[in-house]
């Protein structure tokens, strides 16, 4: 691989921002009880949950590219995990603390449902390693955290399987492809990465093609096989979203307007905080308005508050820790 190879895919930043906004609107409009009655709006808002799948495709592309760029070896495993940990853990832990405070304060807020959602000490400890799915009767503080667990499992498994993924012999790469294809037929719990291997595989395969580790003759048939697994084990809609995301990345690689750049930068913080900032505001105001324009203003207010909170978290925590993670070089 030439040292001058351009690994950058600017449009991914805008897609991150879009994915985060879609998830926000899903939680703000579709999951707010007795807020929006128009079926058309609810149907449109329901598609916001698929912002998660956009994130998964992006991770499927970005992480393999970073490992390929670093010429990853097993001796770099600890550095890789540490680098990812420093990158994602501090904003996550801050959001966990904010979530704990919110769920406890919520019990004393007028109008709140008579249901104690305060996390137990057991729940809090399990959040530290994204371990909630591995234990019974454990609950996430925020409904979005399950995806972070899936992603962290992905980091671990991809690093372990990396030699197979980039092996010069097709027979070894085929073992990796088989793993991506077949595991969703075996594992049916969406809280685990093994349920999502074929979907992440769409992004991984594109990363291999993008970095010229495989040619088009290998890319196309393996893509078809992975699409078959996604269609059978997930849904045709998720397959369409996956292929659509890949198509945007491939054909509009350099598209990244300033607004996309902004929301891309704060996308992780926005994803973490939107359910503890904007969502409570919308829940509180939703029963106090009735006219369409008032409901639009309520959603706008909730989203604006979340964006402000996300920007603060990005500037104060995420950006500094991101810069710190860059200092850890994946070099042998």
From TrEMBL:
Q: State whether keyword Hydrolase applies.
A: no
MF (Gene Ontology): acyltransferase activity, transferring groups other than amino-acyl groups
- What superkingdom does the record give? Bacteria
Give one Pfam hit by family name.
Answer: Acyl_transf_3
Instruction: Give the UniProt keywords, A-Z.
Output: Membrane, Transmembrane, Transmembrane helix
InterPro entries, from UniProt? Acyl_transf_3_dom, Acyltransferase_3
BP-aspect Gene Ontology terms: polysaccharide biosynthetic process
Q: Where are the transmembrane segments?
A: 12-30, 50-70, 91-109, 193-210, 222-252, 296-317
Question: Its GO CC terms?
Answer: membrane
Domain Acyltransferase, first and last residues per copy: 12-314
Looking up PANTHER family in the UniProt record yields: ACETYLTRANSFERASE, ACYL_TRANSF_3 DOMAIN-CONTAINING PROTEIN
Tell me the protein's name: Acyltransferase 3 domain-containing protein
């Amino acid at each position: 691989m030439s040292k001058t190879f351009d690994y950058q895919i600017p449009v991914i930043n805008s897609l991150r921002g879009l994915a985060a906004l879609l998830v926000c609107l899903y939680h703000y409009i579709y999951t707010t009880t007795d807020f929006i009655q128009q079926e058309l709006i609810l149907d449109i808002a329901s598609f916001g949950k698929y912002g998660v799948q956009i994130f998964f495709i992006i991770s499927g592309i970005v992480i393999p590219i970073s490992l390929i760029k670093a010429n990853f070896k097993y001796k770099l495993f600890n550095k890789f995990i540490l680098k990812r940990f420093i990158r994602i853990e501090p904003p996550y832990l801050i959001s966990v603390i904010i979530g704990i405070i919110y769920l406890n304060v919520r019990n004393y807020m007028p109008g709140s449902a008579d249901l104690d959602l305060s996390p137990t000490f057991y729940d809090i400890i399990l959040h530290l390693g994204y371990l909630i799915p591995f234990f019974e009767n454990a609950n996430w503080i925020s409904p979005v955290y399950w995806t972070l667990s899936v992603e962290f499992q992905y980091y671990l498994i991809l690093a372990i399987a990396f030699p197979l993924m980039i092996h010069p012999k097709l027979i070894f790469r085929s073992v990796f492809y088989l793993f991506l294809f077949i595991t969703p037929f075996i594992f049916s719990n969406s809280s685990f990465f093994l349920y999502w291997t074929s979907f992440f595989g769409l992004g991984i395969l594109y990363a291999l093609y993008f970095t010229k580790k495989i040619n088009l003759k290998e890319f196309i048939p393996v893509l078809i096989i992975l699409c078959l697994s996604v269609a059978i084990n997930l849904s045709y809609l998720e397959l369409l979203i996956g292929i659509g995301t890949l198509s945007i990345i491939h054909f509009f690689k350099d598209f990244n307007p300033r607004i996309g750049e902004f929301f891309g930068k704060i996308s992780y913080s926005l994803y973490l905080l939107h359910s503890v900032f904007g969502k409570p505001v919308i829940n509180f105001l939703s029963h106090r308005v009735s006219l369409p324009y008032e409901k639009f203003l309520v959603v706008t207010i909730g989203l604006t508050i979340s964006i402000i909170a996300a920007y603060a978290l990005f500037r104060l925590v995420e950006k500094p820790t991101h810069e710190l993670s860059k200092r850890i070089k994946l070099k042998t």
